[in-house]
């Protein structure tokens, strides 16, 4: 069966699709859509009120976690003392370097896998 | 010129573009231009004029909330159609009426009592099962293809074709007496 329509029904539907008075309907829609903005503002304020104390509460733990992370990635893998030589090799003698190399290796492997599939 | 008629003579793509940017006067003009079509769609789908108007209002409220997502103004008519169908389907799912397994034959008795009276198209549509009426209205009022109806309603294409064919036959038989009696008068 095709999408062909019954011409008699098409005429009836077209006739039934008559213009309707718009004033009251349009006014109602505009009133209801103007009310819509008020709850959104209220929701935004409520979210701020809830988020602000939560952010204040978690600020200290997050700060401590970041400090711990910085100490971890700058920690030397091999203890080379505190001399100038130790400081010079610190950029490659740290946990952060190992993590960076690991990430680069993973990226290279992933690319190779995807290019092999492509 | 009053604010409400500011865009009365402007082409629709321009008015849509302004509405997308949050211009409420442009949106009001779109409501004015499209309200008859949307309200008539809901009147064909529901049997209740008040409910139809309420659903049509929900359509335009949703349009106002989401029109910012409309990328291409030229697609507004199809997009509005889709919003209207979604509003109807959401309303319908609340009562779970689409899932009923009513068949056309279930309505034979009530149809027989009505045949011969001056029934209009809405009353004739009201005698069809919900899913059949939806397919018929989307085909004849919204002028959607069977494939589009299947996509919009999530009904299988074969079911849509069957609903449209059987629904059209039933509608024609219901309306035949009226069509014979009436000349070219618009049903009221």
How would you describe this structure to a colleague?
The complex is a heterodimer of chains A (about 120) and B (about 190). Chain A is mainly alpha-helical and about 120 residues long. In chain A, about 75% of the residues lie in helices and about 0% in strands. Chain A folds into two domains: about 55 residues; about 40 residues. The longest helix of chain A has about 50 residues. The mean pLDDT of chain A is about 85. Chain B is mainly alpha-helical and about 190 residues long. Chain B folds into two domains: about 90 residues, Rna Polymerase Sigma Factor, Chain: A (Orthogonal Bundle); about 80 residues, Winged helix-like DNA-binding domain superfamily/Winged helix DNA-binding domain (Arc Repressor Mutant, subunit A, Orthogonal Bundle), CATH 1.10.10.10. Chain B has nine helices and no strands. The C terminus of chain B is likely disordered. Chains A and B meet through α1 and α2 of A and α2, α3 and α9 of B.
Give the arrangement of secondary structure elements.
The complex is a heterodimer of chains A (118) and B (188).
Chain A (H helix, E strand, L loop, with lengths): L6 H10 L6 H52 L9 H6 L5 H23 L1
Chain B lengths: L11 H9 L3 H22 L3 H18 L9 H20 L12 H7 L6 H6 L3 H11 L5 H8 L3 H25 L7
N-to-C span of chain B: 35 Å
Q: SSE order of chain B in H/E notation?
A: HHHHHHHHH
Percent helix of chain A: over 70%
How do the SSEs of chain A run, as a string of H and E?
HHHH
Q: How many helical elements of chain A?
A: 4
Q: Any idea what the shape of chain B is?
A: elongated
Largest sheet of chain B: none
Show unreliable segments of chain B.
Answer: 100-119, 183-188
Structural class of chain A: mainly alpha
The biggest sheet of chain A, with number of strands, parallel, antiparallel or mixed sense and barrel status, is: none
The percent range for strand residues of chain A is: under 5%
Strand segment tally of chain A: 0
CATH class of the largest domain in chain B: Mainly Alpha
């Amino acid at each position: 069966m095709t999408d062909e329509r019954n011409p008699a029904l098409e005429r009836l539907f077209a006739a039934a699709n008559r213009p309707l008075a718009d004033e009251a309907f349009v006014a109602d829609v505009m009133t209801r859509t103007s009310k819509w903005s008020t709850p959104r503002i209220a929701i935004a304020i409520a979210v701020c009120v809830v988020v602000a104390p939560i952010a204040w509460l978690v600020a200290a733990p997050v700060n401590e976690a970041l400090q711990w992370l910085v100490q971890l990635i700058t920690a030397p893998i091999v203890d080379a003392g505190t001399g100038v030589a130790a400081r010079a090799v610190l950029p490659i003698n740290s946990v952060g370097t190992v993590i960076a190399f690991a990430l680069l290796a993973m990226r290279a492997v992933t690319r190779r896998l995807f290019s092999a599939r492509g | 010129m009053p604010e409400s008629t500011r865009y009365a003579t402007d082409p629709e793509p321009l008015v849509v573009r302004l509405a997308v940017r949050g211009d409420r006067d442009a949106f009001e003009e779109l409501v004015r231009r499209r309200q008859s079509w949307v309200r008539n769609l809901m009147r064909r789908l529901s049997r209740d004029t008040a409910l139809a108007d309420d659903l049509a209002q929900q359509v335009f409220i949703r349009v106002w909330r989401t029109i910012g997502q409309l990328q291409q103004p030229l697609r507004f008519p199809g997009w509005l159609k889709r919003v209207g169908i979604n509003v109807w389907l959401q309303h319908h799912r609340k009562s779970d009426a689409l899932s009923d397994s009513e068949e056309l034959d279930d309505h034979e008795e009530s149809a027989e009592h009505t045949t011969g009276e001056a029934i209009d198209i809405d009353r004739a549509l009201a005698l069809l099962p919900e899913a059949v009426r939806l397919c018929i209205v989307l085909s004849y009022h919204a002028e959607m293809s069977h494939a589009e109806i299947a996509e919009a309603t999530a009904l299988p294409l074969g079911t849509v074709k069957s609903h449209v064919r059987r629904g059209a036959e039933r509608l024609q038989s219901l309306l035949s007496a009226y069509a014979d009696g009436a000349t070219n008068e618009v049903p009221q």
